[in-house]
Amino acid sequence: MVFRSGKLIRAFAWLLAAALLPAQAAAQAYQCRIPQGRVILPEIEPDGPVRQTRVTGYTLALSWSPEFCRLRENAPRHARQCSGRDGRFGFIVHGLWPEGPRGQWPQWCPTRGEPSEREIAASLCMQPDTRLIARQWAKHGSCMTSNADTYLRVTRILWNSLRWPDFDRISRERDLSAGTIRTRLADANPGLPASAIGLDVNERGWLEELRICYGTDFMPVACDRRRFGPDDDDEVRVWRGM
What we know:
The protein is built from 9 helices and 4 strands; from the N terminus they run H-E-H-H-E-H-H-H-H-H-E-E-H. The chain is an alpha+beta fold. A 4-stranded antiparallel beta sheet has the order 2-1-4-3.
């Protein structure tokens, strides 16, 4: 298991300090409604082999909801994130992923625990889909800690440490490039270098996800080629969905 409190003190001190900075204009900071009553996670079946390897770092994957929901607005499976009835979401956490040597990340590690209802409810504005929460814990979090609540809490600390520029305004910039997006996010987050910000775009050039790269101490590090994505000069488009 990887989470070691001694190693995290310096990193979380920086993250908590970042979380106290004045909030930036945030096109993704839409309203979010927490469901009333019990919150129960669905059963998740592994779709790949168990792979237990040394952890060399982490990736915080952040999905851009307007693009994800573009053709899913009426899909019952994605109703909470995409229908608009429970809020309007911009960036949400796809997952916090452990990385391994030579691109062989650990996954589906044996575990019997699952997050508490309190931690699930506290995460539903960050990760607005119970199936997504369940899958990310079972596939990735289980290889990072034996405590599911710790996994969600650490994910929220990373999430809450980020400050967001106005992606609605960014989407309207002329000649928008991957480098522009990295620079705008880095400028809003002192201590987060542009080299630690990866992008995932689809075949049509639309932004789907951001990938924030961390070392084993949860401090930002330069992304490798796989996670970095398009070069800084490559054109990228951002779907606003509104």
